[in-house]
Structure to design on (573 residues):
């Protein structure tokens, strides 16, 4: 028997050498632009969407969750109307990585062409990126993108399938001004200079009750950061629609959640116009850019000087137009997730321009816990590697710790949607904001999208420029005195994206500060993303109450941080 095992192994290896494993041939997909009104040549990315159901259009069925359908992407340049392009088997795919991995069978197929523009930046780089067109950087509904109607196809190895893109996503109609809500848009000189073309910033402004009746009053500014707002949502002057058909919220597992949203919006209107609510200007900022639905409100080598543009151009303009007080003591910040990071970052980078931040479930504020990756010590983002065992890192969990995707899968989805940080999604924008510019003009990768191997030089750059805990610790002697009492951070201890780990590290530093930061760090028991400090209501409710929670709170806290002679009474009518 001892001699039989080597013999069998040699026989097997010989058999494999003579008969190597064969891969399944890929189906052949070709696409044709067939829209007479579109003048070429066009640059962009073809996205093939395949779904095994017709519940929604395939372009709306791509997600990080277990029910995601298929997407494959391929860049194209100089495409003319009527020209056909063949999708190669090597095109990045998600969650299947190659076309040849697709099981044979019937699917609903759809194609989207995500259009890119050419930017000649003033740093000398010429890049092709998808400019936001009012939708908040969503490839599946960006105006001007070309797409096909869903069609049923039979996918087989080596079979050719031809799809025409004969439809164009329509422009978005901007919201109208109302008595309380005004909409502004300005061209930013700083951003226009950086990008080499006109660039704009916008905001939705909620005016205080009695604004017209008190023409001599000047108001503090409440700045809510967050993802691209299409309007000042969460404010409704009429009761909920009695004929509204109840809709189920899968996220919160609540029936009729759409009615709850309307009721909360109406309740906020009643509070806003009531006798005891502080009279302030409340704003939501629009700062979508060629990489994402917002800029992270800081200066960036790849995205541009958005921190300065927002702080020194947009906010003074709003205060001038709507009688803001116009001083740093009378501005404060709040937001959740991306907005939580932005609120803290703006407070740290501009400590005298803002007088308080309420940062809920912030994106990683300490890169020793960049989700579950320590970018300074780990060699690989996707795997925990030991001598005899390699473990895949999770990317998302629920409040019970049940994992729905891996960090690698989340990044492969982005790679399928766009190369060179052009997916318009989370890890790509973090790299776009935090990374130095690469030799090709696009952001340097923190890690390889396929392998997860981390670039230590890029990680070091991140630490010096955007690791908020590290920066506060490094510069506390300078900025600390201007941050006392201003920092409030909230996070659920079962945050879906493990963001609480970075908050723990930040808290450890803040509790050691001298002078003492005298702020607040709080956690929600078993609370998911995006817990904001409310221990009484679930996320489904508290996420709708940011303005009601933080504006009255700041109005009380500012009494102890306002300079001598500051007007603390005229806007409390």
């Amino acid at each position: 028997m001892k001699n039989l095992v080597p013999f069998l192994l040699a026989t097997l290896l010989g058999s494999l050498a003579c008969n190597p494993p064969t891969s399944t041939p890929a189906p052949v997909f070709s696409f044709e632009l067939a829209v007479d009104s579109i003048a070429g040549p066009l640059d962009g990315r073809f996205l093939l969407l395949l779904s095994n159901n017709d519940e929604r259009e395939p372009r709306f069925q791509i997600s990080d969750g277990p029910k995601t359908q298929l997407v494959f992407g391929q860049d194209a340049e100089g495409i003319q109307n009527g020209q056909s392009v063949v999708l190669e088997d090597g095109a990045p795919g998600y969650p299947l990585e190659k076309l040849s991995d697709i099981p044979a069978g019937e699917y609903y197929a759809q194609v989207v062409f995500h259009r890119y523009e050419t930017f000649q930046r003033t740093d000398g780089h010429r890049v092709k990126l998808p400019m936001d067109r009012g939708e908040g950087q969503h490839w599946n509904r960006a105006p001007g993108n070309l797409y096909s109607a869903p069609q049923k196809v039979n996918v087989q190895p080596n079979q050719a399938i031809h799809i025409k893109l004969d439809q164009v996503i329509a422009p978005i109609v901007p919201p109208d001004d109302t008595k309380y809500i005004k909409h502004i848009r300005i061209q930013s000189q700083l951003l226009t200079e950086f990008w080499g073309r006109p660039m704009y910033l916008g905001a939705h402004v909620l005016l205080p009750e009695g604004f017209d009746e008190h023409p001599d009053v000047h108001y503090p500014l409440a700045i809510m950061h967050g993802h691209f707002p299409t309007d000042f949502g969460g404010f409704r002057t009429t009761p909920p629609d009695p004929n509204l058909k109840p809709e189920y919220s899968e996220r919160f597992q609540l029936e009729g959640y759409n009615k709850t949203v309307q009721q909360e919006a109406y309740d906020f209107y009643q509070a806003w116009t009531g006798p005891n609510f502080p009279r302030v200007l409340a704003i939501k900022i629009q700062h979508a850019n060629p990489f994402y639905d917002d800029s992270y409100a800081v200066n960036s080598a790849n995205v541009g000087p958005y921190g300065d543009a927002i702080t020194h151009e947009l906010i003074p303009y709003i205060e001038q137009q709507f009688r803001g007080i116009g001083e740093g003591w009378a501005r404060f910040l709040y937001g959740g997730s991306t907005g939580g990071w932005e609120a803290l970052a703006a407070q740290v980078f501009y400590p005298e321009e803002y007088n308080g931040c309420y940062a809920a479930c912030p994106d990683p504020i300490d890169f020793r816990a960049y989700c579950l990756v320590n970018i300074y010590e780990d060699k690989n983002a996707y795997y925990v590697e030991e001598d005899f065992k390699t473990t895949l890192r999770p990317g998302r969990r629920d409040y019970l710790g049940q994992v729905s995707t891996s960090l690698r899968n989340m990044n492969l989805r982005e790679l399928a949607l766009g190369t060179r940080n052009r997916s318009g999604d989370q890890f790509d924008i973090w790299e776009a904001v935090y990374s130095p510019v690469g030799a090709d003009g696009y952001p340097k990768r923190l890690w390889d999208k396929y392998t997860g191997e981390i670039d230590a030089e890029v990680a070091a750059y991140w630490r010096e420029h955007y690791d908020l805990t590290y920066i506060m610790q490094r510069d506390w002697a300078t900025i600390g005195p201007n941050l006392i009492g201003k920092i409030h951070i909230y996070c659920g201890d079962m945050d879906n994206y493990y963001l609480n780990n970075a908050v723990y590290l930040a808290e450890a530093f803040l509790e050691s500060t001298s002078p003492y930061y005298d702020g607040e760090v709080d956690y929600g028991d078993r609370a998911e993303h995006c817990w904001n400090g409310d221990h009484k209501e679930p996320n489904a409710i508290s996420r709708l109450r940011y303005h009601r929670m933080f504006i009255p709170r700041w109005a009380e806290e500012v009494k102890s941080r306002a300079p001598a002679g500051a007007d603390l009474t005229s806007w409390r009518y």
